[in-house]
Design goal:
The structure is a homodimer. Chain A has about 450 residues and is of the alpha/beta class. Chain A has helices at about 20-30, 50-55, 70, 120-125, 135-150, 155-165, 170-190, 220-230, 320-340, 375-390, 395-410; strands at about 10-15, 35-40, 45, 65, 80, 85-90, 95, 100-105, 105-110, 115, 165-170, 205, 235, 240-245, 250, 255-260, 260-265, 270, 285-290, 300, 305-310, 355-360, 365-370, 370-375. Chain A contains eleven helices and 24 strands. The longest helix of chain A has 21 residues, at about 170-190. The radius of gyration of chain A is 23 Å and the shape is globular.
């Protein structure tokens, strides 16, 4: 790896991952003390809360993705490298990556979470997940292809398997997806496919717990269940998926549902790099103290979804949500600066801004402080908060136009199945390994 | 293939290809006489004149692609199928496709043109082409990846091969691409990659003929050559490429240029389906009379880039441009209707609206009737005509915002390398063949 030399007074902070946590941290570290090396497998930051709208053809990937190099155009002390991290070598203070090794003074792991299939190989093979823009696009393409196949078959069993959609996981992602699919079915697909009878299309939302939205109050969960039922989604709580072969969904009560599209939003696990064998805790997350410091190391920190940090008040881990990630990153930036000045460090305190989930037009729930909102008010708060969180003025404009457009026309015009070409990437490889992981 | 039955009074017109010609025709055929089956390998129409802006990260694919099903939402007599045409069987009046056979009363071939490498296998393997949205995205991804590799190598030869770009073909596509690349180099890339010295990046435009823009007047060609030279593009006329191995570009004067990115815009050939062995003429186009009727058949017609129709005034073929395609389609629609009423048919007359090419901000040439425009006036005409030709109000708005944004900020924010996921498409196949070709 070719990295510009750091200046004499600088220490090098290597950050793995440019999600909410890694990006926030990189923005806040001062060139006065640090050279920052930001590593990510993609050349962009992705705004995960709206991935489901990319999957449902409501937004373009570019509206919720932002090129890292543009974000740091005016910060010469931030060096960006597109690379896959292979393992951490704490003994030599190095990170081994797909484009070579890099030494660090401080290492910050912010590589987030990935889909957890809890060891169910069939589900891992056949289910769709939605943790990245690429996965969201695959889901969008497959949905549209399934309808193209459905118009071309007269076999009713085959047809309903192609139409039906099963969403597993009743958290915000599952709820938002199920609502968006129901709106597609009601407002858009029948116009596009007059040959198909969309009464045949069933949408299921499965949740293993007795109710939806476990992270929110019981009233909100109940409200969302009502919204979804009214939209024609079959909500099944206390129900889990045991097996799936790409067509037959086997439930824990041994009934079978036919569907060629099962979307798995039922769990995540930490995306921990290799080389730190003793620090893993539940679901592959890394145990850290209140300063985000990794157990057993003085120069390695973990922030965001990968960090398992205990809330001293509840004795539970902080939830894996964007506000925790960004607040941990902000505090770590302060503490890293404090260390350089030998100033005292501060422990993490979470300021919970609230939780929200949207189900469809005019329908959402929000819990902000003591305030519980529902319906159109919650929906507008949801849109405002998300719009403001998107990076870039032009992206904000494009997302807003798309939303307004869809609101008034009941239409999304992004129903494109765009395939990559078959021509392989052919530029010669630099060093011995590919810069961009496939 | 499952196709709804046509009504008794209807004849079935099968149209192969939803480009300018096929789409125009399908829009104009009346349900009074016809059932229309529109076949395309993609589920969208692509606006080819702006592909180069997709490749240069200036526009999103969705801004210049439009879902076919949306275009025909209110026309029940137009049946859309996403399929690859395998061969024509005139003896049984059938089209064999990847999703089954379909019978026709009239067949209209509008499958356009594809890149012509004139038998040079190495170029076909290593060069980039730009005839589809997918190819434009591959080019965009590769360009950005090459810069990511360039920041990570200290070998100067390797670095300049990664930076240099060779465009082959001095027609409108080559000219517009070279200009867009020069603007990227001057305004955007140095901000994104402060580690790279963009004085090392050379842009070449090669044209085998003695001058650029052969389809336009000599003054326009000369003007564009000046524009490009001022933008720092090395224009080499009377120069052709003999060979290319992915790094070394061998020219006809036996000099070698180092570049990992050669874009081939030097020729097209007709994309003729199999099964019509005797009708091919120069460059795989199909010879038709003035009524677009294929030589030797009474129920097969060819329109657009695939048709080789002789202009009776010049004794040359009409050019392969969008206005010819759309006018041929409009006339064929009239003639097909006339046939049903036993009315006389009209021969094709081309109304030449003019030719244009843009080089960069404020720089373009246009020849409209006797009028020859250049500079900012031609550039504004170019933008207006292209903007008006894009399908859909929202697409027009998005393209306009992108252009205005780029004009004032000197910036494009779409520099994203989005890879497809590795997970294969897993829904079961309908019939025995895949509906969507890979």
């Amino acid at each position: 790896m070719e990295i510009p030399a750091k200046q004499n007074h600088q220490k090098r902070v290597v950050i793995v991952g440019a999600g909410f946590a890694g990006l926030s941290l990189a923005k806040k570290l001062s060139s006065q003390y640090f050279q920052v090396v930001l590593l990510d497998r993609n050349n962009y930051h992705q705004f995960q809360p709206l991935l489901y709208q990319v999957a449902m053809a409501g937004l373009e990937p570019s509206s919720i993705s932002f090129p890292l190099r543009k974000i740091f155009q005016h910060k010469k002390h931030v060096v960006i490298r597109i690379a896959e991290v292979l393992q951490i070598k704490p003994e030599t203070r190095e990170v081994e990556t797909s484009i070579g090794n890099i030494g660090y003074d401080y290492l910050v792991l912010a590589s987030g979470a990935t889909t957890n299939y809890f060891g169910m190989k069939n589900l891992e093979q056949h289910a769709f997940s939605m943790k990245s823009v690429s996965e969201a696009l695959l889901l969008r393409n497959t949905l549209l292809q399934n309808y193209e196949k459905a118009v071309n078959t007269s076999d009713e069993n085959q047809k309903s398997a192609l139409l039906n959609i099963v969403v597993v996981g009743g958290g915000p992602t599952g709820v938002e997806l199920a609502g968006a699919i129901a709106e597609l079915r009601d407002n858009i697909l029948p116009k596009d496919y007059p040959e198909l009878n969309f009464n045949l299309m069933k949408i299921y939302l499965m949740e293993a717990a007795p109710r939806l939205l476990n992270g929110m109050g019981e009233a909100s969960g109940k409200k969302v269940e009502n919204y979804l039922s009214n939209l024609g989604v079959t909500v099944k709580c206390s129900t889990s998926v045991k097996d799936y072969n790409g067509t037959d969904v086997l439930l824990n009560n041994n009934t079978v549902i036919k569907s060629n599209c099962l979307i798995w939003a039922a769990g995540v696990k930490g995306n921990a790099p290799a080389g730190l064998p003793d620090s893993k805790t539940i679901n592959n997350r890394l145990t850290v103290d209140e300063y985000s410091k990794l157990e057993g190391y003085n120069d390695i920190f973990v922030v965001g979804d990968l960090a398992a940090m205990t809330d001293r008040h509840t004795q539970k881990f902080f939830p894996q949500v964007a506000p925790v990630a960004m607040q941990q990153a902000a505090l770590l930036a302060k503490n890293l600066h404090a260390m350089q000045r030998n100033a005292p460090l501060k422990p993490f305190k979470y300021f919970d801004k609230g939780t929200m989930a949207t189900v469809g037009r005019n329908l959402a729930v929000a819990e902000i402080g003591g305030l519980k909102l529902k319906g159109i008010v919650a929906w507008m708060v949801w849109m405002f908060v998300h719009l403001m969180s998107i990076i870039g003025v032009k992206n904000k404009i494009f997302v807003l136009i798309n939303w307004v457009w869809q609101y008034f026309t009941y239409d999304q015009s992004l129903r494109l199945i765009i395939h990559p070409t078959n021509k392989k990437e052919r530029a010669p490889k630099v060093h011995t390994k590919s810069v961009i992981a496939a």
